[in-house]
């Protein structure tokens, strides 16, 4: 099977300290055919950094939200702009490692899957921190498996890879971190083949800039319940 082209969609919000480094790592993978940066109304100087990056890298697509709309909204903007065979979500912090791209791509390249989740809980290297965050993730994943009759290990992973025609065909409405349960629920309801692979995970603490919080966990519960019965 010929190699598939890859669009990397990167939602960005107040990541001045990390966005240039993660972009270098994405480009260093040698696998991203198209990189789409979506600034979601940053206020810390990130947007200035992105403009400078775009001047040095004219092939990048830089899309700007006029105000902060949420991570899910930024991802949706990027997905709509993607043009390559596959679409991968890449956070702008340094929690996820682009050196895992070959492992993520393999199940689709081999015809085993249409969507791949990079799981933080399948034995890959990871930083030993954020215990309660891990517990919340595993509880939400357990709820997902009960509601949708699946055996996922990591519903909330930020590394999700899709065939472009699949992700662009699914109506997406969630604007914040509830994008993760929404897309997972809709993929499972459509019986789309999902593969999981282990990834490296380097979680940052809240004092380092982590943004997801307890209210987002409650929103995820509601989203999983809602999309079990509506689309």
Q: Fraction of residues in helices?
A: 25-40%
- Main-sheet strand order equals 3-2-1-4-6-5-7
Would you give the CATH topology?
Spore Coat Polysaccharide Biosynthesis Protein SpsA, Chain A
Uncertain runs: none
Work out the number of β strands: 7
> What is the gyration radius calculated from CA atoms?
17 Å
Strand content: 15-25%
Number of domains: 1
Judging by the overall fold, what is the CATH architecture?
A: Alpha-Beta Complex
Give the count of helical stretches: 8
Write the CATH homologous superfamily: Spore Coat Polysaccharide Biosynthesis Protein SpsA, Chain A
Q: Class, according to the CATH hierarchy?
A: Alpha Beta
SSE run: EHEHEHEHEHEHHEH
Average of the residue pLDDT scores? 91
Major sheet size, sense and barrel closure: 7 strands, mixed
Distance between the termini: 34 Å
Structural class: alpha/beta
Q: Identify the overall geometry.
A: globular
């Amino acid at each position: 099977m010929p190699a598939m082209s890859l669009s990397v969609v990167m939602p960005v919000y107040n990541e001045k300290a990390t966005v240039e480094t993660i972009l270098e790592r994405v480009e260093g993978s040698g696998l991203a055919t198209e990189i789409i940066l979506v600034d979601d109304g940053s206020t810390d100087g990130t947007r200035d950094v992105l403009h400078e990056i775009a001047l040095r890298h004219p092939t990048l697509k830089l899309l700007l939200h006029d105000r902060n709309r949420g991570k899910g909204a930024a991802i949706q903007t990027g997905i709509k702009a993607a043009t390559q065979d596959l679409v991968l979500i890449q956070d702008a912090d340094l929690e996820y490692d682009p050196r895992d791209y070959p492992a993520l791509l393999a199940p689709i390249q081999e015809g085993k899957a249409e969507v791949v989740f990079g799981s933080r809980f399948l034995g890959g290297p990871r930083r030993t921190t954020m215990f309660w965050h891990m517990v919340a993730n595993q509880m939400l994943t357990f709820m997902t498996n009960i509601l949708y009759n699946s055996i996922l290990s990591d519903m909330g992973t930020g590394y999700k890879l899709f065939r472009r025609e699949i992700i662009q065909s699914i109506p997406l409405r969630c604007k914040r971190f509830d994008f993760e349960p929404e897309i997972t629920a809709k993929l499972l309801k459509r019986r789309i083949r999902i593969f999981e692979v282990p990834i490296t995970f380097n979680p940052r603490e809240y004092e380092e800039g982590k943004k997801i919080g307890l209210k987002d966990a409650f929103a995820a519960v509601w989203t999983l319940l809602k999309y079990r019965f509506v689309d």
